[in-house]
Amino acid sequence: MELSNRVVLITGPRRIGAVLASEAGSRGADVALSFHRSRQEAEQAVSAIRATGRRAICVQADLSNGPACRLLIDETVRQLGRLDVLVNMASHYAATPFDQLDETLFDTGLAVDLKAAFLCSAAAVPHLRAAGGGRIINVSDWLPASGRARYKNYLPYYVAKGGVIALTEALALELAGDQILVNAVAPGPILAPPDLDDEEIRAAERATPLGRWGGESEIVKAVMFLIESDFVTGEVLRVDGGRHLR
Known about the structure:
The chain contains eight helices and seven strands; from the N terminus they run E-H-E-H-E-H-E-H-E-H-H-E-H-H-E. With about 250 residues, it is of the alpha/beta class.
């Protein structure tokens, strides 16, 4: 798929989402970004895209709320006229010791990372069909893609991201006849979380065969490959510098 004059919706404007939005705009797409609390980041990304001559909007949406997912899709199509690509990037990443987990915390993790990806995708499908096909790209994580849990205190996140892989494969099968290709990206050490200290950052580098953090551009390149390919669906693309090998 060529992105010129297409419409791309990206959930989550922080960090990688904003860089991806900029790249999509540079390739001729009009872009919608959803945000929950990161209004400043979303508005900055939108301004930068508009400066290039492309249309761009940002929409506030709490994607843990089911109706908000449908409203986000409807608002994107209302303002930009169509929808060709949905990138489900919104995520809830928080460490919680097992003994402190309760039903609410568990549900919150699954609602943002898994259920929202399904609900946004389901709401997008009629518009992707109307466009003659499209792309849905989900974001999982290298941990479930590697086949086992490795870090404690992230149980809801791990379960949800594992579910994203299953969702990706099932949606790919369901939607192949509509020429809607569904894939996932599973990032590894791309950007150091802000709460990591220097030793933890270096430890992650040592545990990664390529010996470094990847940076936002590696995820952007992976997503662009999955958008441009016309014969890849149901795939989970690990972008982790070989981290899953250790």
